[in-house]
Fold this protein.
Amino acid sequence: MNIAEKFHEGGLFMYFILVFGMLTLGFIVERAVTLYHLVKMPPPDFRQRLLDYLLRGDIRGAESFAKATAPKSAIGGIVEVGCHLRANAGGEEEVQSRMDERLGAEISAIDRRTGFLAMFGNVATLLGLLGTIAGMIQSFAAVATASPADRATMLSKGISEAMNCTAFGLIVAIPALVAFAVFQNRTDRLVTRLTEITTQVYHDLIFLAEGSTRAERARSV
């Protein structure tokens, strides 16, 4: 008996499991492409190159550098906002709030679909269980009206068909939950790294840029 026959024997709930299986596959592909290819961390020398601009008091240059980096990494846009505000004499609270706002948007974009995989895995398992229970209820109802000679055969066949739902539900649920764990770990690492760099750059903008500007003014006097 092939998979197609087992699928049709599983009953109505198999089609719901199939829908969640297709959604799971689509979300796994989308999350893999997004988290491992589209969302990138800045180059290792990003902060050092930014510091070179800030130590010279060239906040506009730091802004241009961050803007050029923005299409290649998530941190670029956050740093660009902070540099732009600081170059226009933005206060500490304004810089922090705007950088936090942009950081929140980046984190939301990174994490917005990962949680669906856990939901798909749980729902697929429950649908498989529900299909099994419904199939067994139907089997026991049919056995109750069958002749004694046919009851054992009908019962074993009915239970075998009902268990197909559980099997297919687990086939969908296991990859979904494994993918969720892997992608959630990747998401946490990206978010932690983004938050660390944002905090570091914020302090650089507030303290180093301010100190460099004062030193430059003192030399000019």
Summary: The CA atoms of residues 110 and 220 lie 46 Å apart. The radius of gyration is 29 Å.
